[in-house]
Amino acid sequence: xxxxxxxxxxxxxxxxxxxxxxxxxxxxxxxxxxxxxxxxxxxxxxxxxxxxxxxxxxxxxxxxxxxxxxxxxxxxxxxxxxxxxxxxxxxxxxxxxxxxxxxxxxxxxxxxxxxxxxxxxxxxxxxxxxxxxxxxxxxxxxxxxxxxxxxxxxxxxxxxxxxxxxxxxxxxxxxxxxxxxxxxxxxxxxxxxxxxxxxxxxxxxxxxxxxxxxxxxxxxxxxxxxxxxxxxxxxxxxxxxxxxxxxxxxxxxxxxxxxxxxxxxxxxxxxxxxxxxxxxxxxxxxxxxxxxxxxxxxxxxxxxxxxxxxxxxxxxxxxxxxxxxxxxxxxxxxxxxxxxxxxxxxxxxxxxxxxxxxxxxxxxxxxxxxxxx
Length: 373
Fold this sequence. Notes:
Blueprint: H1 2-13, E1 26-37, E2 56-66, E3 71-84, E4 87-101, E5 108-122, E6 127-142, E7 147-158, E8 164-176, E9 255-258, H2 275-287, E10 291-297, H3 305-327, E11 334-338, H4 351-357, E12 360-366
Parallel strand pairs: 10-11
Antiparallel strand pairs: 1-2, 1-8, 2-3, 3-4, 4-5, 5-6, 6-7, 7-8, 9-12, 10-12
Helix pairs in contact: 2-3
């Protein structure tokens, strides 16, 4: 039994991790009941063959003082009785204990204890006294500023018999002249009352009631640079240009962009080195989501009119496919048309002029009847 109690004491001591709170202080009064387990090899009875029974009940009362630090000192009186084969007898105990509290951030406070005292056994032939030291651990749980539940387990080692008893105690501690509640946490400054401390707040003047992120800045769900509470057009597409209300900026004119895409003679394949020209169109259309583009394809004057018409259409479609498939512009915003050898911009009698005429032009337009939502 003794070994089991010691193991329980050691295990309980490893359970709790201390953190800092304010200490309570004041006078304490602690009535308790408990169980006292005598070492079976004590031989205290009149008949040396008698053994004390385990878990004898006792009553105790302690009076002490808790300082405004981890320590408490108390004087304890204990009264109990035990039973042997020869009959019953009483025992009394006086002791002085020191308690060292392990600070926590809640009302649960474990503590270590150590002390010394004297037992008086009213045996059959005569009373007998013995000195002892005791040690152990326990806990308190504060119900309010005055009353705490208190329990501890301790080993009690006789200095005369060199035997060790054990005791388990449960009681109530009353605190007078102090407080057992944890100290209030320091006030956290939050000037704009958004729930983010000023020391962590990157936007210290957020209006009251506005939903904020972990940095204390107003949420911007569509990442358009306009906070949700100001955004009249939530759900803007990524990369789109918006006004101060979060709505798309609408073009008020049709723009024509000449692409620097040259095609080989009698070919409709877009050379990879010209993709950057098409990407510029994609970036512009991303910034203005309400726009649409028409690719106009042309040829030089060689070949038949019918053939050149088909070839110009193939060239325009080829550029449109690159815009849709390589730069993720929706096909609903893209169209292509061929104009054959019409509208030359250079002399078809020279190689340089014919190369310039083998071109594709991007015409971008937008509907401006209303602001895009």
